[in-house]
Amino acid sequence: VPAGYCQIKKLYVDVKDMNLLVDETRLFKLVQIGSYNTSLQVTSNIQHPDIVQFVPPVVDIPGSDPPNATVEVTYDICAYGKSPGHSEVTFNVTPGGFVDMDTVFVRVTVMYSNAIYVISYIMGWIYFLAWSVSFYPQIYINFKRKSVVGLNFDFLALNIMGFAMYSLFNCGLYFSKDIQSEYFSRHPRSLNPVQLNDVFFSLHASFATLITITQCFLYERENQRVSVTGRCVLGGMAGVALVSASVAGAGKLAWLDFLNYCSYIKLCITLIKYVPQAYMNYKRKSTVGWSIGNIFLDFVGGSLSVLQMTLNAYNYNDWVSFFGDATKFGLGLFSLVFDIFFILQHYVFYRSSERSSSSSPKCIVGNNNQNKNHSASHSTSLRGACDAEFEFGTNGGLKTVINKVVLWIDFRERKDFMFDSSEEGSIRTTGDSEYCLVPTWNADEKKYDLEAKA
User: Fold this and answer.
1) So where does this one cross the membrane (predicted)?
2) 378, 392 Cβ separation under 8 angstroms
3) pLDDT tens column, 89-100
């Protein structure tokens, strides 16, 4: 085009995204800055004409003689929502070659109900908060018990790897202009899939998981460690990430592809990370040490996430995306299935072990003469000085469990204590006072110290 005719500095629409209700109309503007000495026609190309209609479909831009480089003219276009759904609208200029319209477009969303839209928006923030808070019940229970026994280390290792990969993906797409440019070149007219709340969640999840891992070094953990299988899985995933990063650093792979590989690793981890904890609970026949609060919050978040997807699919008549995004829907449903399984383990399968654990004493203090007179047929309870529960059986004795150490007290004979444990120790009596061995966890030597207490 001759330079003298190139007087239009800019031609654009004043809105990029538009939400409409069915049968609703809304005005937006096509803005022209500068003019040509010939008339132009701007035609709207609607991706799905059954969803939205533009009136007028063609805008005539008159020429100016002489051309004016500073004049600004606006043209009103009315958008009418015909049926729920999503549609992109681009524009063509005739004759061609005068104006580049590749970046001029409108994304239109037509919905049934604005109330459903608001409810869906609120649900999004609720499940964001539920998932963010879900890490802290486990941290609290570890702090309260001064122990991480019952928390599977494979689960923690997979979690920190997954959230690290997720953080790399989110931070890269949100902060790097080069990666954003690569993304938009592959997906023109699309939005950045990563928002600020995604960045916050992934970084916060990594931080909370690191706190839990730190507790594993400070509190009682017995002989727990990451399994050989877990190390192999993590090593393989770390190897994929490191090789991809090296190839990207050498310029043989786009950094966007590296971030995509990180997201695939996160998806794989989400599929398998609950398995070690569920299997550990099954082997122990107990969920002691595993926070059910974490599961409830995760269940709330997952349920609201799936419900939000369902509401959006109905509101936008977009069931293809609902079932087409098998990854998001499948992962959400998969997490809910594991949450339900953990709830069944806690409240149904291993409920008795939870109750016995919550009532097991820290130490035993009692006087033999006080308790001699209990008959063999009598069953009662005695609260000792350590706030411990004593239960008398039909044989006139008492059995209790302290940190897996079985103590048996027989009030019918002077041999008051029989000690059954793999630990070395002894029980003795002097007069009316009984002495028992109390296991105390030695964090430095990673073993129990057996201390005699009256």
Assistant:
1) 115-136, 148-169, 232-252, 258-276, 288-309, 329-350
2) yes
3) 999 888 877 676
